[in-house]
Specification:
globular; 282 residues; mainly alpha; single chain; 4 strands; two-stranded antiparallel sheet; disordered N terminus
Length: 282
């Protein structure tokens, strides 16, 4: 503080006029508005950056693939998401017995700094339960004489076996026709699931493996879905294309043959084998 001389006349306190007070008030408001204008874009940019992070789950992925993808996007140690399943409180149907396979719905999920393995898993299962609980799904399952959970299992096979929308409806029909005749499904996709692989080549030895997912040895549907189907595969499962087919094989890309005649199926399989041998020699 600076001391004043006794001879110095006392200073008059300055009081702003009404117009001055108004000018000061306007200036203060302008400062606040400018500050807010600077702050809002910054906050928006930060939030926008968070919203751009996402996790894409493709149709047909197995639970093991989903777990690995969640671990990666959240930068968690391998195996973290799989271990989180038990504690996630997932609203699965009783038939699932705590296994979320088939109910990790394929979609694009937002990922923020608050996202955890448990929250992502719950988001996926909540989405599946909502979609699969729709009236047309439950009605279609009842019409086909199966449960919704069994319909998800059929859809997972359709998703794994068919390459196109039209083929999905025919593959679903083959599944339903075989179930109706009490025939084993004999689907290579269920063997691939049991062996944790994806291949077009199935050996005679593969068809003898000891697994409940071996649909060559065991009749009926596998004990769980073999992947996570999308809505198109579910639509095929509840409304399969009409037809008598019991067999199918993709002899070449884009060329899947369906038939009810076993001898014709054998000829189609031989053509498939010739094409595979030719591709190998090339």
């Amino acid at each position: 503080m600076v001391n004043e001389s006794p001879d110095t006349p006392p200073r008059r306190k300055l009081r702003p006029t009404r117009r001055g007070r108004l000018a000061l008030l306007v200036a203060a408001v302008l400062v606040l508005v400018v500050a807010a204008a600077v702050l809002v874009p910054l906050l928006t940019r930060e939030r926008s950056t968070e919203r751009t992070r996402s996790l894409v789950i493709p149709e047909g992925w197995r639970a093991s693939q989903v777990y690995a993808a969640v671990d990666k996007v959240l930068d968690e140690p391998s195996g973290t998401t799989e271990k989180a399943v038990a504690a996630a409180g997932l609203p699965l149907p009783p038939s699932a017995k705590g296994n979320p396979e088939g109910y990790l719905f394929p979609a694009t999920y937002p990922v923020t700094s608050d996202t955890t393995p448990q929250s992502l898993l719950r988001y996926m299962v909540d989405t599946a339960v909502k979609r699969f609980g729709a009236d047309h799904i439950t009605t279609g399952a009842q019409r086909n004489g199966v449960t919704v959970y069994q319909t998800v299992a059929i859809a997972s096979i359709v998703q794994a076996e068919a390459d196109t929308g039209p083929d999905m409806g025919k593959v679903a029909r083959v599944v339903h026709n075989r179930l109706a005749r009490d025939m084993p499904l004999q689907m290579d996709s269920t063997l691939n699931y049991a062996l944790n692989r994806s291949t077009l080549d199935t050996t005679a030895g593969d068809t003898k493996i000891d697994s409940p997912y071996n649909s060559y040895e065991h009749k009926g549907l596998p004990p769980t879905p073999i992947g996570n189907p999308g809505e198109q595969a579910m639509a095929a499962a509840i409304s399969p294309t009409a037809g008598p087919w019991l067999y199918f094989v993709t002899v070449a890309p884009g060329d899947t043959r369906f038939t009810a005649d076993y001898a014709q199926q054998q000829r189609n399989v031989e053509e498939f084998n010739r094409n595979r041998r030719g591709a190998g020699n090339g």
